[in-house]
Amino acid sequence: MAKSNHQHPGQDEPRSYGRTHHERFEIDLNTASEEELAQLPMVGPERARRLIEHRPFNSWEDVERVPGFDKGMIDDLRSGGAQIGGSRH
Q: Is residue 34 part of a domain?
């Protein structure tokens, strides 16, 4: 798994939850376990529970309606490899 190098401060710093920022991962938001979701950058246990409660997702707009998920967070998830239903929408 190749590391991204976007040349900005903090890209390799550990986050309070999950992996380092811009680390590449592939995970389907509709099928991942709560534990797997909690490991995503900036997600953690509370947001992971919210994702599971609001499944299934048919679009990223559906994810944006989940409390605690704004457009910036969704952009980070998408650019890191998060998927909906096995495809990168």
A: yes
